[in-house]
Amino acid sequence: MASMVSVQGLSKIYDDGFKALDSVDLEIEEGEVLALLGPNGAGKTTLISAICGIATATSGTVTVGGHDNVRDFRAARSMIGLVPQELTIENFETVFNTVRFTRGLFGKPRDDAYLEKLLRQLTLWDKKDNRLLTLSGGMKRRVMIAKALSHEPRVLFLDEPTAGVDVELRKEMWDVMRDLKGSGVTIILTTHYIEEAEAMADRVAVINKGEILLVQDKAELMKQMGKKTLTVDLDAPVDSLPDSLAQRGVELGADRKSLIYTYDTAARKTGITDLLADIRKAGLHLTDVHTKQSSLEDIFVGLVTEDAA
Question: InterPro entries in the record, alphabetically (predicted)?
Fold first, then answer.
């Protein structure tokens, strides 16, 4: 199956020599949600801008729906909706008029029925006649999404879509994204809320220093790279860790009343049974045992830290 968005050897080098993108290759499938993760300055926004044709790449190619975004810019750009980080809206215009105007900018014929459906989907219909300056920050963010979808694109870029909104509204925005995905829209999401990527993404791409470090199915990534931490609570603090436990990679908790053991859930043997036996042999008495599965955030931090080393 052909990719909806295909990026080949994309580089962006500024006049001062700074390399914002370094030979990026990325294939994005139709109808998927791809979370693009990376620290500040990693190249996320530059990559989005280059794909959308806002920034000119130094080298490489981008196609959207089979259209080259340089040779056939209008056709490629018409397939893209972009929700930038900044709230760029006309404060004195009404919700409905600003969305209708944006649709017209893409040369689309007037279709008030479609815009009504869109605004209802985004819980904006009752605000359609409100001036934008009267809306809350979260509602303005919804208007930005409505503008991006007004011309019926097949690819939607969401650059930090829930930045600055409360937890309740963030969850509502997730529902909107699920509805869009259900209608076949391809979504590329950048976010600093790793839980957002964990909740929404089909695949995860990690970028750092302008290079793609990894692109992988989210579930498979967590299965392959995820770790589990076993914490054993003791009935009394210990002065030092017995050698038999230290050799297994066990660490003593900061309170000196817990033992911490990290293991690979995919390994044939976790070593937990032998560990518990060694704890008993060492004369230690446990009061509780609990585990914690590493999250996508743990994996992301590990990848970026390793790349920086």
Answer: AAA+_ATPase, ABC_transporter-like_ATP-bd, ABC_transporter-like_CS, ABC_transporter_ATP-binding, P-loop_NTPase
